[in-house]
Amino acid sequence: MTRTRFRRLAAGLVLLGLALYAWPLTLDVPLTDPDEGLHAAIAQEMVERGDWVVPRMLGESFRDKPVLYFWALAASIDLFGMRETAVRLPGLVFGLLGALTTAWLAWQLAGPRVGVIAGALYATSLLPLAIAQAGVHDVALVPWTNLALVGLWRAAARSDAAGRSGWILAAGVFVGLAMLTKGLVGVALIGLPFAIWLLAERRLTAGLVAAGALTLAVGAAVAWPWYAAMEAADPGYLDYYFLERHVMGFATPTQVHGERPWWYYLPIVAGGALPWMLGPPFATPRRLGPRWDAGTRLLWIWLLADLLVLSVARSKLVTYILPALPALAILAAIVWDGWLDEAGRPEAPRRRGILVAHGVILVALVPIAAIVAHARFGIGPGAATEAGAALVLVAAVLGLARWGSGARPQALGWLLAAMAIFFVSVMAGLFPAVASDLSARDLARALNRQGALPPKVWIVDERVGSVVFYLEPGLRRGLDAGRFENVGYGTVLSRLASAPADVLVAVAASDAGRLVRGAAGAQVPFEVAGRYRLYRIGDLRMHLLGAEAG
Q1: Are 412 and 545 in a shared domain?
Q2: How far is residue 308's CA from residue 262's CA, in Å, rounded to a whole number?
Q3: Structural contact between residues 395 and 423, judged by C-beta atoms closer than 8 angstroms
Q4: Quick one: average pLDDT of 282-291?
Q5: Conformation bin of residue 327: beta by default, left when phi > 0, alpha when psi is -120 to 50
Q6: Same domain for 4 and 24?
Q7: Could you report the per-residue pLDDT of 408-428, keeping only the tens digit for each?
Q8: Which letter, b or e, does each residue of 30-49 get, where b requires 16 or more Cβ atoms within 10 Å of its Cβ?
Q9: Is 139 found in the same domain as 269?
Q10: pLDDT, tens digit, 9 for 90 and up, residues 165-207
């Protein structure tokens, strides 16, 4: 590669990184519920209490997730203040680390050019893009998974004890960080595919078994101090987290997400890897030829083993599959790398059809996102969305044209640019309005204006989270778990006669008709707080129960 081409590549990658991982921080977008606002409020309480051991929500221990992502959130809030950018920064940093470590792992398995392509493909796939903005724990698991696999791969390639032990130590540290992020899930998603690969390759020796045991021991040594401290501060935590959350969540439908079908992840993988999902089906022994090697086999085993484990588990959620997506990105990168090598050769009509399909998918993404936003949230496409759709079309056409002329690296660059433009246009044109419909920021602002909190606030059919984060410090001080309560519509109506008159009921305006029906309901006074209506129990009781009595 010439110096000029290297500079162009570096500049393109920097621009791509800025668009995906830095520019979103400039947007005025409220924190969303249920997860982002909840995690932000927990980290906020961690900072305000000065307790960096026990994650808490309104004073109560939050046992559902380990601490590492909360540490990242709390450190960011402590450094940059109680604002949305501080909350979103860790997710974007972990998202960027996920792309960079995917590139490094691909580099180790298949060479530097595959590494660069894989990092770019992972960064511009739909699910990694979306989850990096959402700020959930799974986004932090991706870099630890990738780095642990690099360590295990390099250790398996070393014959000398000194060289192997260094890589095993590194892998163990990253396994420990995975345990601090998602418990034993991280261990399973890393260790199981690598063990199966060693068996399939007939490379499982006594030395590698000992190395695996050492990796687990180092990981446990890294993670155990926090788990022990958490158990000491909150007795019963280990039993709850490892027995109820892990064992029972895997084997029974007792968890919140425990009733999903076995095929739940199949469309998520296919859709989440768009627009690059069309590449991995070509990463087969017949099509890859000499490129079908130990590294490619590890990728397929990684993807299929993780998909199988997560599909067998009864508790399923979209974000759980994220740590397996780097395998898809690297497989797609291996295929694209082979296509780039074919520049100047005649290609089959089928290959041209695959490239056109990539372009069609890219062009369709913006209008599909606009349709979904309109159907779900009633949001129409604005100027940014319309301009983005036009620019995506231009970039995709330029990419396909450059491919036809034989300039295939530039063609891939244009397709990546099209995906980046899609992301920017959706974030600017649709996401602020969508986030506002999923946030309680306006409710918190209304409570702040009152200067004092009611004795109790019922939030109807929504998790308490962002409302706590946005409260003024004076109102947050002394809050307990009884002040805010998530209730259903039936609960409000069943407790209407007995609840104190000054209980405040916050309900989304779009659903208020389920609570206040008929002529009597229309007479109940309320305040408007953004997308919420605020009712007093006394007013509801007077009009609704009074009407029934009459």
Answers
A1: no
A2: 9
A3: no
A4: 88
A5: alpha
A6: yes
A7: 889 999 999 999 999 999 999
A8: bbbbebbbbbbbbbbbbbbe
A9: yes
A10: 999 999 999 999 999 999 999 999 999 999 999 999 999 888 8
Question: pLDDT by residue (tens digit) across 216-245?
Answer: 999 999 999 999 999 999 999 999 999 888
Is 120 in the same domain as 258? Answer: yes
Residue 55 lies in a domain: no
Residue that terminates a domain, selected from 307, 339, 371: 339
Give which of 223, 338, 238 is closest to 280, Cα–Cα: 338
- Number of domains, the chain: 3
Residue 200: how many other CB atoms lie within 10 Å: 14
Q: Are residues 148 and 255 in the same domain?
A: yes
Which residues in 199-288 belong to E strands, given as ranges?
Answer: none
User: How far is residue 119's CA from residue 413's CA, in Å, rounded to a whole number?
Assistant: 13
pLDDT of residue 546: 64
**Nearest residue to 470 via CA among 22, 27, 36, 25:** 36
- pTM equals 0.94
| Cα separation, 177 vs 171, whole angstroms | 10
Q: Are 374 and 493 in a shared domain?
A: no
Please name the residue that has the structure tokens 């000398």: 160
Residues 531 and 395 in one domain: no
Residue for token pair 């982002």: 36
Both 355 and 285 in one domain: the answer is: no
Residue 473 belongs to a domain: yes
Classify residue 74: in a domain, yes or no: no
Q: Is residue 205 part of a domain?
A: yes
- DSSP structure class, residue 281: G
Task: Name the helix (H) or strand (E) containing 57.
Answer: strand 56-57
Three-class SS of residue 170? Answer: helix
User: Checking DSSP bridges between strand 484-487 and strand 457-460, what pairing results, if any?
Assistant: parallel
Q: Which domain holds residue 365?
A: 1-30+350-439
Counting Cα atoms < 13 Å in the Cβ hemisphere of 409 gives 11
pLDDT attached to residue 171: 97
